[in-house]
Amino acid sequence: MDYWRKLAIASNLILLIWFLLDMTGFSIGNSVLVTTAYREDGIFFCIYLIAFLLFIWKYGFWKYILIAWLALWFTTQFYFHWWVTLFGPWEDKMNFFSHTIKLIPSSQIYIPDLYHIVLHLLILVALIFTIVFVRKAEKIPPAVEETGVARER
């Protein structure tokens, strides 16, 4: 269980650091990885930061809040980035993200930029590791009698 707790905390910490780039903006030379978006995303950053810190500090109820937040966040990211990639419309998204670093450049359809591809993967990894940790932590071993034989429930 300690192993999965470390993975859950580490993956959420890496996600938090990556998301912090969205608050500050980050460029590599003349290429923009992500623009400063604290006005648009600041409240989401604060909610995630608080949920993550309370998950570490209090754990109990907050494990469910963190899982719910990660699931909701992944769902909204999927909708606003990959749904548009699959079904359109692409023009507004392509124009908005035209100056960012592209892993897969396209002039035909919108494909999320490098920052958002990594963000989506990190959210998914943090969500999976957090769920696995919580499930393993809540797993109750079968009752064992004095004989050492597990009782049937």
Automatic annotation (TrEMBL):
Regions crossing the membrane: 7-29, 41-57, 64-84, 114-134
Keywords assigned by UniProt, alphabetized: Membrane, Transmembrane, Transmembrane helix
Name of the protein in question: Uncharacterized protein
Lineage of the organism: Bacteria, Bacillati, Bacillota, Clostridia, Peptostreptococcales
